[in-house]
């Protein structure tokens, strides 16, 4: 068994069913891969749904992870994996029937590559608002299979693969980063990619390894998008292990805040689109400033 697909989940039973169904319908025999569900303290029907698939498919297993947090769940996944490679897919994503096959094909082409991932395409249950940014919800680095330029390019957590040996060597995901139940936090995969890059290990983008990622209705609001940018900023210092001066952060807030005023001027896009385009960098810088401020206070 070469591939272990890991789904970490918290109270998303309805979406989890869709994800698991897509993994049950891969076009390779079940003996070629396994699927692990890491239940991170869910209180909905997650346990019963996961157990249903373990009864119906011998290559499905489920584990309960009591330590709250996506990083804890992801680390539990690679530690329990029987495969040589661990493929992470979000519980609100679905894999096309050739997902595992494409992962295997990439490994055949690049047997020495230990970290790689591919694009994702947004899907919804209804139409998006007219103002919604076209760039949000889907992600791609093009059609070329190549190493990424870490620092300017990243893989995304909903569709990434690592050798189990590499995860053991690096220690996996930082438990101080990532979602924790209902608390929004980001950056655990970015932190891991930086650690891998520091070791001089190449990280590849594989365009044929694609998944579909659900763009939930609550993300269709401007408030949600700006909050996401802010929370990304809050994690900046921990992710990059950098201690910018507070004055530098204030300068960033002033610069992005000044630029954000451009959204008030008429343009080709709707007002809400312009508010997101110009406001997201400001909220990111604001989050980074407050993250640094509270971190400095905690160190005193």
How confident overall, as mean pLDDT? Answer: 92
What is the highest CATH level, the class of the largest domain?
A: Alpha Beta
Give the termini distance in whole angstroms. Answer: 50 Å
Number of strands: 11
Please give the CATH architecture of the largest domain: Alpha-Beta Complex
3D architecture notes:
By secondary structure, this protein is an alpha/beta fold. The chain has two domains: about 5-215, Spore Coat Polysaccharide Biosynthesis Protein SpsA, Chain A, CATH 3.90.550; about 220-300. The protein has ten helices and eleven strands. The strands form two sheets. It has an eight-stranded mixed β-sheet, sandwiched between helices. Strands 5-11-7 form a three-stranded mixed β-sheet. Strand 2 (about 35-40), helix 2 and strand 3 form a beta-alpha-beta unit. Helix 1 runs parallel beside helix 2 (about 45-55), helix 7 (about 220-235) packs parallel to helix 10 (about 270-300) and helix 9 (about 245-260) packs antiparallel against helix 10 (about 270-300). The protein is globular, with a radius of gyration of 20 Å.
Write the topology of this structure:
Layout (H helix, E strand, L loop, with lengths): L2 E7 L3 H12 L8 E7 L6 H11 L3 E5 L5 H11 L4 E5 L3 E2 L4 H11 L5 E3 L2 E4 L22 E2 L11 E5 H7 L17 H11 L5 E2 L5 E4 L7 H13 L1 H5 L5 H15 L10 H29 L1
Parallel strand pairs: 1-2, 1-4, 2-3, 6-10, 7-11
Antiparallel strand pairs: 4-9, 5-11, 6-9, 8-10
């Amino acid at each position: 068994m070469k591939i272990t697909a890991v789904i970490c989940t918290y109270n998303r039973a309805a979406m989890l069913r869709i994800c698991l169904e897509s993994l049950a319908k891969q076009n390779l025999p079940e003996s070629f891969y396994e699927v692990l569900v890491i239940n991170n303290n869910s209180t909905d029907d997650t346990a019963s749904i996961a157990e249903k698939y373990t009864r119906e498919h011998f290559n499905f297993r489920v584990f309960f992870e009591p330590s709250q947090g996506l990083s804890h769940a992801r680390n539990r996944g690679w530690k329990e994996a029987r495969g040589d490679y661990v493929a992470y897919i979000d519980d609100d994503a679905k894999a096309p029937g050739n997902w595992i096959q494409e992962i295997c094909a990439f490994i055949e082409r690049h047997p020495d590559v230990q970290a790689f991932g591919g694009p994702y395409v947004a899907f919804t249950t209804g139409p998006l608002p007219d103002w919604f940014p076209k760039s949000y919800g889907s992600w791609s680095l093009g059609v070329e299979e190549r190493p990424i330029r870490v620092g300017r390019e990243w893989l995304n957590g909903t569709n990434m693969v690592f050798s189990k040996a590499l995860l053991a060597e690096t220690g996996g995901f930082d438990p101080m980063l990532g979602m924790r139940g209902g608390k929004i936090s980001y950056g655990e995969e970015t932190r891991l990619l930086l650690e891998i890059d520091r070791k001089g290990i190449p990280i590849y983008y594989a365009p044929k390894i694609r998944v579909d990622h659900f763009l939930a209705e609550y993300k269709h609001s401007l408030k949600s998008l700006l909050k996401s940018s802010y929370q990304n900023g809050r994690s900046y210092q921990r992710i990059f292990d950098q201690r910018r001066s507070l004055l530098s952060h204030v300068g960033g807030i002033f610069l992005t805040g000044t630029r954000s005023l451009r959204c008030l001027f008429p343009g080709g896009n709707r007002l809400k689109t312009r508010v997101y385009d110009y406001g997201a960098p400001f909220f990111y810088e604001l989050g980074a400033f407050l993250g640094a401020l509270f971190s400095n206070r905690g160190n005193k």
